[in-house]
Amino acid sequence: MRPAEGANGFYFSMFSHMNRSESGPYEMVRGRENVYELGNIVSYKGQKVMPMWGDKYCGQINGSDSSIFPPIKEGNVPKKLYTFEPDICRSVYVDLVGKKEIFNISAYYYEISESAFAAKSANPNNRCFCKKNWSANHDGCLLMGLLNLMPCQGAPAIASLPHFFLGSEELLEYFGSGIKPDKEKHNTYVYIDPFNIELRQIDTVTQLKRVPTGLFPMLWLEEVCRLWIGRPENVLIMPEV
């Protein structure tokens, strides 16, 4: 953040520290001994457990980096698929829904699990993600669908799915309109990491003197793959961020 030239206000960048940066290094399984472990992450930046959560369950690194998955064996289809997301310093998972067809090709279809970002009341295993930060006036355990990123990013950001999809309805009460979770729009990508800021009144900052306290979406990120529509043997996967 820096002051604007010749005007009131300031410039703010959420990810300027990541310009020209690389993720990793990762240590991953090559699948030579067991192809069904292909792509599983062994360590990230030399760490086998993410230390900022202070707990082995919340800090465990499961699955791949989502760029590769092991083959699925018929008759032993995994009920969950895990990916490790370094931007939020944790692994997340999707649940098996069933089989679907895409371009006349049968595939297993997974959706983001509601329990992944569930409040501790709905998923007690998530209690180790409760971390009190500089602005919290509670025990650090957030509402359904939220993840405190202060331990991960060192900034007062809170992650959620777009439009607080799968989140507590209480989050929507802050907005008169414009925020409306929709499964068709917000549940189709491999993974999405939006960032929210907890707004509070600060008398010493002109722009924040009259704002009501609440959670305000700053941005969202999408990582998707586009499939070229053509003959199956000529399918081209185009990553897009």
From TrEMBL:
GO terms for cellular component: cytoplasm; plasma membrane. Belongs to the CD36 family. It is a multi-pass membrane protein. This is Uncharacterized protein. Keywords: Cell membrane, Disulfide bond, Glycoprotein, Membrane, Olfaction, Receptor, Sensory transduction, Transmembrane, Transmembrane helix. It comes from Spodoptera exigua. GO terms for biological process: sensory perception of smell. The lineage of its organism: Eukaryota, Metazoa, Ecdysozoa, Arthropoda, Hexapoda. Transmembrane segments: none annotated. GO terms for molecular function: scavenger receptor activity. InterPro entries: CD36_fam.
